[in-house]
Amino acid sequence: MGTALLVGLSTLFAVPLGVLGGIYLAEFSGTSRYAELTRFVADVLSAMPSILLGWVGYLLLVIYFGWDFSPLAGAVTLSFLMLPYILRTTERSLRRVPASIREGAVALGTRRTQIVNYLALRLAMPGILTGILLSISISIGETAALLYTADFWNFYPCGLTHCRVGYLTYIVYSFTNTAAGLDPSAAANGYLAVFLLLTFTVAINLVARVGLRRMSKI
Environment class of residue 85 by beta-carbon count within 10 Å: exposed (0-12), middle (13-18) or buried (19+)? Predict the structure, then answer.
C-alpha cells in the first residue's frame, strides 16, 4: 500500500509536467536557450545519483517546508527522479513523427496546435506511454531517495504529511540484511517483497516493450 501510494502520487506529479515539457521542447521551443537549459537540467537529473535527490528532498521538503518524513515528501522526490525520463522520451517520440505528415497537414491548412493535439500526439503516444511506464518501473525499485524523505515506520499509509510510510524496497533492504539470521518470518517477508518487486517490474516492462510497441505507428 505504501509503495502504491508513493508511486501513484509521484506519477501524478511527474507525468503532466514531463509530457507538457516534452511537447514544448519538440514542437514549440525551436532554438530557444530556455529549451537547451531544460534539456541540460533533465540530463543532469537523469544522471544524478538518487541518494543526492533524497538529500535535497530531505533538506527542502522534510525540514524547510516541515512536511516531516511522509508520503508527500517521498512522492515529490520520486517525481523529480521520473521527470527527466518522461520529458526526454516525449520529446524524442514527437520528433520521430515524419516531417511529410506534418507538411501534408500544413498544406491542408491545419494549425500548429491542431497538428500537435490531433496528429503528432496520437502517433507518438506509444513511445510516450513507454517512457511513462519505464519511469514508473524505476520508481518502484527506488530506495535511497525514500530513506531521506519517506523513511519507514508504518506498513499502512496514514496521511500525506507528518506520517512515515512503509515501502517494499525498504523491507528488502532491512529484513534480508539485518533480520534474516535472527527471525525466519522476517526473512520470509523480505523474500516476499523481492518477489513482488520482480513481479511488478517485469509486468510493467512487458507491457511497455511488447504491448505498446504493437500500437506504434512510427
Answer: buried
